[in-house]
Amino acid sequence: MPSRRSLLRPLVAAVALAALFGGSLASGAVEAQQAPTIFAAASLTNAFQDIGKLYKEKTGKDVTFSFAASSALAKQLEAGAPAAIFASADLKWMDYTEGKDLTLKATRVTPIGNSLVLIMPADKAKPVTLDASFDWLAFLGADGRIATGLTDSVPAGIYAKSALTSLGAWDKVQPRIVGSESVRAALALVERGEALAGIVYSTDAAIAKNVKVVATFPASSHPPVEYPFEIVKGQDNPATRAFFDFLTGPEAKVVYAKYGFVVK
Length: 264
What we know:
This is Molybdate transport system substrate-binding protein. By secondary structure, the protein is α/β, with parallel strands linked by helices. It has helices spanning 4-33, 45-59, 70-78, 91-99, 136-140, 155-166, 170-173, 183-191, 202-207, 238-247, 250-258, and strands at 37-41, 64-68, 85-87, 109-114, 116-121, 146-149, 177-180, 197-201, 211-216, 225-231, 262-263. Strand 1 (37-41), helix 2 (45-59) and strand 2 (64-68) form a beta-alpha-beta unit. Helix 2 packs antiparallel against helix 11 (250-258) and helix 3 (70-78) packs parallel to helix 4. The model is unreliable at 1-33 (pLDDT under 50).
């Protein structure tokens, strides 16, 4: 009669094999489902979506995007939100994530830039010259408002405040500013005619249907509009690296140029 030990051996072997192959299958399923999540400034929406589609066509691999103001994305990273890459619309919020040990400074690249423009609804647009002599209150009239990003946190708003301060207009204009949670939200206010004017990036104005650029702020009036990209700490793996490199490669640069970014 077979011993109890000999009867148990096939059962133990079967359990071990099930665990081995079951674990391998589960691991493979997770790897197949995972795609790098990219946290990106709202002004990058159209360009990054095009680049993501191009990457899918070239590699068969997906990426996931989350677009918002750079300030909001940095705070989400700080709160533990999962992401593989952070693409900011200014240096401040990238420096912030570095300071919190959330992103890898050694991976930083700054491949593109932008310009700051004044826009108006297309049916009210009138070209102006932005310099220290420009009469903002006459331009705005009795109750005109200017939409831009929140001036204490959203990059577009921070650049706008810097430019208006440099031109000696901030104290006069500040009560007329409508701060929005992102540059795209500010753009929408102007598109709908809910604000007389807006201060946004030239690339945002380029994709809008119902607005026109009436002036470009002098480059000397604000810090350069730059977009640093970094890999998030703990996410420097082959899948992340592959897309990170694609974001700064020749095919991506063609997309950036199409949308009006300054390619470096």
